[in-house]
Amino acid sequence: MTRYVYAFAEGGRDMADVLGGKGANLAEMTRLGLPVPPGFTVTTRACREYLATGAEPEELDAQVAHALAELEHRIGRELGGRDNPLLLSVRSGSKFSMPGMMETILDIGLGDESVLALAKATGRERSAWDSYRRLLQMYGRTVLGIAPELFDRHGPTDDPAQLVEDFKKVIRDATGEEFPQDPAEQLYRAIRAVFRSWNSERARLYRRRENIPDDLGTAVNIQVMVFGNLGPDSGTGVAFTRDPATGARGVYGDYLPNAQGEDVVAGIRNAVPLAELERLDPTSYRQLVAHMGTLEHHYRDLCDIEFTVERGTLWMLQTRVGKRTAEAAFRIAEALVDEKVIDEDEALTRVGGAQLARLMFPRFEAHADTKPLAHGVPASPGAAVGAIVFDSAEAVRRAATGDKVILVRRETTPDDLPGMVAAEAVLTSRGGKTSHAAVVARGMGKVCVCGAEELTVNVRARTLTTPAQAVLAEGTVISVDGTAGTVHLGALPLADSPVGRFLDTGKRDGVLTDAVARTLQHADSVRRLGVHANADTPEDAARARRYGAEGIGLCRTEHMFLGERRGLVEAMILAEDETGRHAALDALLPLQRADFTGILAAMDGLPVTIRLIDPPLNEFLPDRTELAVRVATHPTTRDRRLLTAVERMHESNPMLGLRGVRLGLVVPGLVEMQVRAIAEAVVERLRAGGNPQAEIMVPLVGTVEELRIVRETTERVLAEVSDASGLTVHCPIGTMIELPRAALTAGRIAEAADFFSFGTNDLTQTAWGLSRDDAEASFFPAYLAQGVFAASPFETLDLDGVGRLVRIAVEEGRATRPGLKIGVCGEHGGDPDSIHFFHDTGLDYVSCSPFRVPAARLEAGRAALANRADGTSAAT
């Protein structure tokens, strides 16, 4: 016979899959001998069977009845009895905490007769009738599905007995049935209602947001009611064994005298600090502090505790490992190491890269009471204040005079890069976490909120219109919270980040920075994955190195073609013959060489993977529509030639058109110029006594033949520079794996590659057959809401599809070339969940924006520990 019911004394905290987190912890406290009101738990399996079939398992009612009979015998009271009646609470409890998402029904067992018995037993007639009122309200809403507002119309009243009659009438009018007086019927129907609440809209939404599987189901905990509302010697409260905000040791929490637990949650009365309990009830306070010490020692972590004092008797109602801020997580983990409660390995498992990222950036001191103008996607964390500007040139102009500005665009393009550099933050009304604005902003450490669709950006009128139809002109000061994804009017107060300061300078200045430093040091000591950075300038490279990067995994040469050099790219495109094209390339070469020399100097002794130009050349030309208007209104020879070139190069889908390696094969001299610039930069660094480690990466390869042709050209240029300089210039030549065909033919491509680097942004786009920016702006929200995606595949790697392509490419590439160096340089290289996959798959390194390097180091260490714990080893 399948077992569906366990008494608290029969379980333990290792049974969360069966008993849910709350039930497992109640069982654990019972086993520890703490004063837990007795009860029993209906398992998650019973819930799953009920949801699958629409009926509870046949054996369930009998098992509940047996457990109830044993409970009644143990405490000497009868459910709903006429002499000191037993009353029960019925609470949900899934494996993972879902606070407030599912249902609770209190005071099961009360009825027209038992309420009188309760009043007599407690001597508190008003409290007894108020408990009956609570049951009617909870039962009516939860079990019978009555709209809450039907109860809200009644009361408050000075006569709770009259309110009971009013609520019974609400139930009768709404359902056509009387409130059941049979306590067993109340109990069984309450259990089924808790089962159903697993699939409530709010519970499903919460699970999607927290990535909790839908098929777990909830347990149901049935527990003897204890009452904190029986007078001044009673009360209820919440306690934490350490401060959940800072991690400091001490007595933290709230206590509400003469009240029930839901009164604390509802906030209908102001609680007093937990320390006040010592004055009100010294005995209960001493017992509570002792139990808190027992629980923290047993769980070896911060514990969150709910308790009730019933006429001077302390009862422990619930405990769990407490939620905490990112700061508290690091401080508590390292404090427990110092107290010899846990070791450094376990401390590392208790913090995460996302928590570290939240600590790195400035934040607003407090704006909980400041209503946001709009919400968007939190694309790059931090907080910034500045005046609205609507184009790059204005951002640069104002920033040069010392103004702080926020660049506001519908969406950004490479043309906006100077303005993004100048601005404190970037705000767009379109796009998501992997849009151009988000990716570039994260790389620079700029605050960014994308996809704020509630805002209307009118660049021509230079206005920003809010959902409330307020029109903000250019120059209006706003505050942008890239961590929360909110936009606020005016200047909110900013708080500096001590962790960001420490990572930039290496100087520890307190408990928090010391905890972060120790955690990162241990992560570095255990991780196998290398951590590189995506950096395109010497400044970014230097910052990445300060943050612990062990090389550059992606240096994008096309970013060096923007700004003043755009004219040279235009000249190359407009050249009517080979002479004109070579003249433009010759003018670009020394500029590129200087770029590479600076980056190689900043990363001296570490690998720098330089990607040859990737995007289609039309990205370096003016907008087609804008050009057409200029030609139609004020035509010039240059604009006519540019428009002709744009028309000639126009592609319906340029991201799948003439770009990457294809450019190198059809634009004569382009590969030679870039390779020569790299090689000559290597020579300059060698002559300066440096140790340059340049690597050349060919993008968008789909077949080994493409790579072989470019490799031949590259090796020829490297040999020419070596001969001319008298120095040996050796640069490994590899490719990005960013097309499904490249992944599926990786064994062949490895014949011509010294290394692979996965471009997971494009690999995700091409594997899914979608455009990143368009998808995020159109159907992604619906897909996430309906559970098609648990998370955006551009944020966390799609393991089943794109992940399988990665595994195939790793296995087949290394079968051809054992020891093939393989990394990843897409945005997923900085995503904590994806890093664990890359470790398991056997990649050598991940590469991400400089500001994500510390979090990637930490997650790489966590991945190594997780790999060690489950007894597996990374693929090689």
Can you summarize this structure?
This protein is an alpha/beta fold.
Write the layout of secondary structure elements.
Blueprint: E1 5-7, H1 16-31, E2 39-42, H2 44-53, H3 60-75, E3 88-94, E4 104-108, H4 114-122, H5 125-142, H6 148-152, H7 160-175, H8 183-197, H9 201-210, E5 218-224, E6 235-242, E7 249-257, H10 261-266, E8 272-273, H11 277-280, H12 282-299, E9 303-310, E10 313-321, H13 326-338, H14 344-349, H15 353-360, E11 363-364, E12 374-375, E13 377-380, E14 383-389, H16 392-400, E15 405-409, H17 417-422, E16 425-428, H18 436-444, E17 447-450, E18 456-458, E19 463-465, E20 471-473, E21 477-481, E22 486-489, E23 494-495, H19 498-505, H20 511-526, E24 530-534, H21 538-546, E25 552-556, H22 566-574, H23 578-602, E26 607-611, H24 624-633, H25 637-649, H26 661-666, H27 670-687, E27 693-698, H28 704-725, E28 733-737, H29 740-744, H30 746-749, E29 755-758, H31 760-768, H32 772-777, H33 780-785, H34 802-816, E30 821-824, H35 832-841, E31 845-848, H36 853-869
Parallel strand pairs: 14-15, 15-16, 16-17, 24-25, 24-31, 25-26, 26-27, 27-28, 28-29, 29-30, 30-31
Antiparallel strand pairs: 1-2, 2-5, 3-4, 3-5, 6-7, 6-9, 7-8, 9-10, 11-23, 12-22, 13-17, 14-21, 18-19, 19-20, 21-22
Helix pairs in contact: 4-5, 5-7, 13-20, 15-36, 20-36, 21-23, 22-23, 23-27, 24-25, 27-28, 35-36
